[in-house]
Amino acid sequence: MSGKPELTDEQRERIRKSRERAMELRRKRLEQQKVEQERQAVEQRNEMKMRNSVCVAKSNVKKNNYEEEDENVELEDFEIGASQYVTKQDAKGKYCLPDGTLEVCEYTEKDNPRQSKWNKMKLYNRSEIRRRARDRWGGLEGLQEERRRRENKRSEKDMAEGYRLFKKQKK
């Protein structure tokens, strides 16, 4: 005889029934979990569809308004083929808009592509920014004149700094 006691037929039958019962309970629990997961997935999909349909409806209204305005607007060279969105830096630089004007503009937030831990990047609708810039500066010519004025101011500042650096010191 080995060191293990022999199981009786009655004990083996009881173990088999317990195992079958445990397997049945496990199978039912897994089925319930699967059904619950599918139900949650369907709810999430429906919720996302609702959100997207509301967002799409709102954006379509805005797009239609902007598209109607854009059809009659003369584009500049850098705007042809450009994205419909513009960054805050471009809005301030190319369109000469101050922070106060940008604060009232609608924007979309997106994770910063340079570092996702940084603040979210604000993307403004190019047609809205273009419209506000042209309203502010009196049309396309006024906006271009403001860009030239700022470029000249920047050049004069750089020249003054250069003269200051290379100025001969008198002894």
UniProtKB/TrEMBL annotation:
The keyword Cytoplasm does not apply. Its main location: nucleus. Residues 26-45, 135-171 are annotated as: Disordered. It is found in: Nucleus. Keywords: Nucleus, Zinc. Residues 135-161 have a biased composition (Basic and acidic residues). PANTHER family: DNA REPAIR PROTEIN COMPLEMENTING XP-A CELLS. This is XPA C-terminal domain-containing protein. It comes from Chaetoceros debilis.
